[in-house]
Write a structure and sequence with these properties.
Layout: H1 2-22, H2 42-61, H3 69-91, H4 95-124
Length: 125
Amino acid sequence: MIKRIIYSLLPIIGGAIVGLITSGYMDYSDMVKPPLSPPEIVFPIVWTILYILMGISYFIATKDNEDNKELDQIYLLQLLVNFMWPIIFFVLEMYFTAFLWIILLLILVIVMIKKLLKDLVKTSV
């Protein structure tokens, strides 16, 4: 249970750390934006909500099986990839690498969803 709580808090902790690292490298007001771009204040609110939901999702997904090492590894890996993207994009300004990194993140998320669905079908039968 303690592991599930800690892992559930990792998105918030990691997101806060990455936010601190990248905050000096992002100037939203200087970016070229389309006319319907949201105001700058929207991004920290939305990302905080997303990271909270990631933690809650992990907690719910591991409710019936706390010792699912494969799911834990995929979850932690996708968190690491997720946290590295803003650093690659904003700090290092490696835009093509950031593009490839997003594709990697999408693949990891798909793998994680497939694993969750497979486990869900297995436990419901």
